[in-house]
Design brief:
Distance between the termini: 102 Å
Largest sheet: 4 strands, antiparallel
Structural class: alpha+beta
Oligomer: single chain
Shape: rod-shaped
Number of helices: 7
Length: 182
């Protein structure tokens, strides 16, 4: 059974923490969505199965065992209190989550879906628009390159300073004091 999450406490930050990256796509787990909607995970998956034509592979898909293990280890996703899942979880892309609203028709599901869609849009904006962060990273890279060449010049000067000066070669022959060779 999915953990129920009060819709009054649903914030974009909480939803954002439930979004995972799998196969290069931002997705949400069936159990997390069921918790947000306040329905059992089995009920959510049952509706998806009954309406399979609304959920093509780019909207929803079942994880492989390896993908599920990776998610569990990377994101500290634990198994349920009742002995773990018996089936591999389904994940839903942004479009799959949008399609869920047509399958789960409760007012609560509609409110939750609106918040989830806002979160996906927010994530897309953060990732797609070259904003202030990208500009700061570019400036930082330029500064590092400039400092890198300056540091190399300083290191070269320090290395030259640490080198032993060459002692003048001793001249062979007789030398008379006060006489210069020409």
């Amino acid at each position: 059974m999915a953990k129920k999450i009060s819709t009054n406490l649903i914030t974009p930050d909480k939803i954002e923490n439930l979004v995972h990256l799998v196969r290069g796509q931002r997705v949400m787990l069936d159990s997390d969505l069921a918790g947000l909607y306040g329905v059992p995970t089995a009920r959510l998956n049952e509706q998806v199965t009954r309406n399979h034509d609304r959920f093509p592979r780019d909207f929803a898909y079942q994880l492989t065992q390896q993908e599920f293990m990776n998610l569990m280890s990377q994101n500290a996703i634990s198994r349920s209190d009742w002995g773990g899942r018996r089936k591999l979880p389904w994940v839903f892309t942004e479009h799959g989550v949008a399609m869920l609203s047509s399958v789960l028709r409760s007012p609560k599901a509609v409110r939750v879906n609106i918040e989830i869609m806002r979160t996906f849009v927010r994530l897309r904006r953060l990732m797609a628009t070259p904003g202030e962060l990208v500009e700061q990273l570019t400036r930082l890279a330029e500064t590092v390159q400039s400092h890198d060449s300056q540091i190399k010049a300083i290191v070269q000067v320090l290395n030259k300073m640490m080198e032993r000066p060459e002692e003048p070669k001793r001249q062979i022959g007789f030398h008379v004091l006060g006489e210069e060779r020409g």
